[in-house]
Write a structure and sequence with these properties.
Number of helices of chain A: 4
Strand order of the largest sheet of chain B: 3-2-1-4-5-6-7-8
Number of domains of chain A: 1
Oligomer: heterodimer
Order of helices and strands of chain A: HEEEEEEHHH
Radius of gyration of chain B: 17 Å
Helix content of chain A: 25-40%
Number of strands of chain B: 8
Strand content of chain B: 15-25%
Distance between the termini of chain A: 55 Å
């Protein structure tokens, strides 16, 4: 890349940095030069279950790997409870799930919107990607027509219980 | 009795368009692409190749161009479209009932409308990129409420690099095994196919000398409605 090209890229990146900082719920931004990934930390993510109760899922690190064209998630504060008293049947965990829609490998299942996130990452506009990712993390089960999560949201604690 | 194409001949004249057309993947978007092409007269003079290894299932009827008769007759998608096409005077539809797993003799216009991103790459790498016989690639990707179309001259290095930049691997595309799979909505499939076919119409007009520059990337969002175009 020429000097002018580098300058343009840096200006573009700095502008996106400002936009990224303005995305609601973002707590920190870092770069891992080892694997050339962009790490974005979130504030604690809450989600609403089908009964309208607020549940605390945890704080996440969203990792973008532009060269490998992938993004992953890590819940850094909380694993789901293995059994929920609110479920009739005891639930057997099949592993460490970071979020109802994120598997053990940290891959989010986004059946609609994934390609737009991939486009934003290819464009280098991470603020746009995060604007799509944050609502996906803060799910509202009252408006979900077909729940096909890996783990049910009720396995995560109620916000009120956490605050006690 | 033959379908009269006089209503659109001023925009697209199938008798002048002799390039073969391949549609790879004839599900949500692909079956709609075939439908429009056939109704415009493609497959009367030129060859219309349809590629897919699936059979028609009931869940396909809700968002694709098939109907319950195709399911009842246990037809493959290619056989079903050949049957439908005969009602649209498309006599030169050539069916390839297979999943492409390597190099194939593609030529003319190629519509790629598959689910799998890895299959797209394989077809691109083995049969499209810098293949002198392929004049235009129209590649369609679709989710429930958004779509992406690439219109690529596979001999233009900048466009080749552009397409490769925006390709991404399957592993991150959907996690179908966990969450019930890919969502597909008929109107999104249809509008994606409509716009994709329009790019071929523009290409045909360009070949006839019309002053136009094709858009290389078209981003479509339904919610809110937005269409963005990019030229590389």
């Amino acid at each position: 890349m020429s000097t002018t090209g580098n300058q343009t890229a840096f200006q573009f990146g700095l502008h996106d940095y400002d936009l990224l900082c303005a995305v609601l719920g973002i707590a920190s931004i870092g770069i891992n030069w080892g694997d050339f990934s962009l790490l974005i930390g979130t504030e604690c993510i809450d989600a609403i279950d089908k009964d309208g109760k607020l549940r605390e899922i945890g704080e996440f690190i969203v990792k973008f790997f532009p060269r490998q064209k992938k993004f992953t998630f890590e819940n850094i504060t909380r694993t789901p409870m293995r059994q929920s008293p609110e479920l009739d049947q005891p639930t057997v965990s099949t592993g460490y799930f970071h979020h109802p829609h994120i598997n053990e490998d940290g891959v989010m299942c986004i059946s609609n919107g994934n390609s737009e996130i991939m486009l934003a990452m290819a464009d280098g506009v991470f603020s746009k990607a995060m604007k799509m990712i944050m609502p996906a993390l803060r799910m509202d089960m009252r408006f979900v027509r077909r729940d096909t999560a890996y783990m049910e949201l009720v396995l995560w604690p109620l916000k009120s219980e956490v605050q006690k | 009795m033959t379908i009269d194409t006089m209503r659109h001949e001023g925009i697209f004249d199938y008798e002048k368009f002799l390039l073969p057309i391949h549609i790879i993947g004839i599900g949500g978007v692909g079956s709609h692409v075939v439908y429009h092409l056939a109704k415009m007269g493609c497959g009367r003079v030129n060859d219309l190749h349809v590629w897919d290894g699936d059979i028609v299932e009931l869940h396909n009827v809700g968002n694709q161009k098939y109907d319950k008769r195709d399911v009842a007759d246990n037809l493959t998608k290619t056989a079903a479209l050949v049957r439908h096409a005969s009602w649209w005077d498309c006599k030169r539809m050539i069916q390839h009932c297979e999943y492409i797993d390597g190099q194939r003799e593609l030529d003319g216009i190629v519509f790629v409308c598959l689910d799998s991103m890895s299959a797209r790459w394989m077809i691109w790498e083995t049969s499209i990129r810098r293949n002198p016989a392929v004049k235009l690639l129209v590649e369609c990707r679709m989710e429930a409420s958004n779509a992406l179309i690439h219109v690529i001259d596979p001999h233009d290095e900048k466009q080749v690099r552009g397409w490769e930049k925006y390709w991404y691997p399957d592993e991150e595309a959907t996690n179908a095994a966990g969450c019930g799979g890919h969502l597909s909505v008929g109107p999104t499939a249809s509008i994606t196919a409509d716009i994709a076919v329009w790019q071929m119409i523009r290409f045909a007009a360009l070949e006839e000398g019309l002053d136009d520059v094709l858009d290389n990337q078209i981003r479509i969002s339904m919610r809110p409605l937005r269409v963005e175009t990019f030229k590389w």
